[in-house]
């Protein structure tokens, strides 16, 4: 009975609720239809993602729609108001675009080999009333590209003039321009300032000289690979200049010698050697050679065997279209070195005898053996002015006598030394005898006691 009562109450509630909904529908008929329509019309499932694509790559836009029913999907290019596709049918004549239907809810627009002109807004549209749409942006980045114009080409200038190098590049984003020298040398800019790299599309060099000559690189970069560069050659023209390190060179006859000059010139110079206003050509005796390095040339002249006629002045000559110059080297003769044998000094010890001239009246009688010799010498001395030969004999006799006197003195000293040594030997023997006797006495005394 209770169950039947609950069932009756439930039926009454359903009837009442139906009656209320009927009354509300009768009072607001437009709102009811809108609700039904919103529930049945299609809607976007997710937003379209913006993209940044490098030129040449592929771009993919995806438009997700739920409850499409019988409605249609179209892709449009907003910037040009161009219809690209309806459903999967391509309207535009761009063969790089395709549209595919994926998983019954996504409409995918593909753009192959993207070009810079493809940049812009793309719209996915549903043909409802009113129409529904959403958009996505395609940003196309372009690596740098250096333009042939107005970028500078190879330049030829005279030394001392002013130079301006230009470099222009395009890309997306806009590239940055950097200058540097190919060999890593510094770049001279205004104000006598030197830098390794210079940022800017225009590079100005004041009063250019030969040191500025060489290759300059214009480098363009914007963060999108690859970075590109262009080589601009700066050529500086100037007349020849010579440098000679040794202007005076000496050589012996028969010697091999080399003369050297250094030349700087551009355009390339004609270089040669001259002697006595005659150009020297390569042969057995003369060997002219050149070593080039950019605008520098080292001229060398080798003379294999110098002869007597080779001494004199030699000219090294350098010429180009802007002028000419020459330098002189003088080759002079160096005599052959004379070999001398030098003997080591020897020391000879000699006994020097000093003689004194004595007047005949003052001669010591004790140096002569007899009175007759003394008188004879005295007479000879008195007549010395009349007889020079006898006077010379007397001087020789004096020398002999003095030599005999010196010899006798040395013999006497030797005898004295011998006597002293014999005396010392006797003293040593006597002392030994005394010691021996004392020892014998001691031994005898000990034995007796």
What would the keywords be for this entry?
7-stranded mixed sheet, 4 helices, 25% helix, elongated
Would you write up a description of this structure?
With 449 residues, this protein is an alpha+beta fold. It contains 4 helices and 28 strands. It has helices at 2-27, 29-40, 371-382, 388-448; strands at residues 43-46, 51-54, 59-66, 73-77, 82-86, 89-90, 97-102, 106-111, 120-126, 132-146, 155-158, 163-166, 169-172, 176-181, 187-189, 193-195, 197-199, 202-205, 214-221, 228-243, 248-251, 257-266, 270-275, 278-279, 286-293, 296-303, 312-320, 323-333. The longest helix has 61 residues, at 388-448. The model is unreliable at 1-36, 338-389 and 403-407 (pLDDT under 50).
* First and last CA, distance: 177 Å
Structural class: alpha+beta
Whole-number mean pLDDT: 79
Summed up, the helix count is 4
Biggest beta-sheet profile: 8 strands, mixed
Shape field: elongated
Gyration radius over CA: 65 Å
Helix content: 10-25%
**pLDDT below 50 for ≥5 consecutive residues: which ranges?**
1-36, 338-389, 403-407
Number of strands: 28
Determine the strand fraction and express it as a percent band: 35-45%
Can I get a quick summary?
By secondary structure, the protein is of the alpha+beta class. The protein has helices spanning 2-27, 29-40, 371-382, 388-448, and strands at 43-46, 51-54, 59-66, 73-77, 82-86, 89-90, 97-102, 106-111, 120-126, 132-146, 155-158, 163-166, 169-172, 176-181, 187-189, 193-195, 197-199, 202-205, 214-221, 228-243, 248-251, 257-266, 270-275, 278-279, 286-293, 296-303, 312-320, 323-333. Helices cover 25% and strands 39% of the residues.
């Amino acid at each position: 009975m209770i169950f039947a009562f609950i069932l009756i109450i439930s039926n009454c509630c359903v009837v009442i609720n139906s009656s209320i909904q009927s009354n509300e529908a009768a009072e607001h008929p437009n709102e009811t239809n809108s609700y039904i329509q919103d529930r049945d019309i299609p809607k976007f499932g997710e937003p379209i993602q913006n993209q940044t694509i490098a030129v040449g790559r592929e771009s993919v836009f995806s438009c997700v729609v739920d409850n499409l029913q019988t409605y249609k999907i179209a892709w449009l290019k907003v910037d040009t108001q161009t219809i690209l596709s309806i459903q999967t049918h391509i309207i535009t004549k761009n063969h790089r675009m395709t549209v595919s239907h994926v998983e019954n809810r996504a409409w995918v627009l593909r753009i192959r080999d993207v070009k810079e002109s493809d940049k812009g807004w793309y719209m996915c549209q549903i043909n409802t009333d009113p129409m529904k749409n959403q958009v996505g942006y395609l940003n196309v980045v372009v690596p740098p590209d250096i333009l042939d114009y107005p970028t500078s080409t190879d330049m030829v200038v005279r030394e001392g003039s002013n130079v301006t190098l230009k470099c222009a590049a395009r890309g997306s984003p806009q590239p940055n321009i950097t200058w540097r020298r190919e060999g890593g040398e510094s770049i001279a800019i205004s104000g006598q300032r030197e830098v390794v790299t210079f940022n800017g599309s225009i590079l100005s060099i004041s009063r250019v000289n030969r040191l500025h000559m060489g290759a300059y690189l214009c480098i363009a970069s914007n963060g999108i690979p690859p970075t590109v560069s262009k080589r601009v050659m700066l050529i500086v023209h100037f007349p020849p200049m010579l440098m000679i390190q040794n202007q005076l060179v000496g050589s012996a006859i028969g010697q091999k010698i080399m003369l050297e000059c250094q030349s700087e010139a551009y355009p390339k110079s004609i270089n040669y050697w001259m002697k006595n206003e005659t150009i020297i050509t390569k042969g057995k005796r003369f060997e002219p050679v050149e070593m080039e390095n950019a605008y520098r040339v080292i001229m060398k002249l080798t003379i294999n065997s110098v002869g007597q006629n080779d001494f004199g002045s030699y000219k090294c000559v350098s010429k180009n279209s802007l002028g000419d110059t020459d330098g002189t080297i003088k080759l002079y003769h160096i005599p052959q070195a004379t070999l001398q044998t030098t003997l080591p000094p020897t020391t000879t010890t000699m006994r020097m005898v000093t003689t004194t001239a004595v007047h005949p009246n003052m001669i010591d009688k004790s140096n002569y053996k007899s009175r007759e010799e003394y008188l004879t010498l005295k007479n000879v001395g008195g007549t010395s002015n009349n007889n020079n030969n006898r006077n010379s004999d007397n001087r020789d006799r004096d020398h002999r006598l003095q030599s005999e006197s010196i010899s006798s003195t040395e013999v006497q000293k030797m005898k004295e030394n011998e006597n002293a040594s014999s005396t010392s030997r006797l003293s040593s023997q006597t002392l030994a005898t005394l010691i021996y006797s004392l020892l014998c006495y001691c031994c005898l005394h000990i034995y007796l006691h």
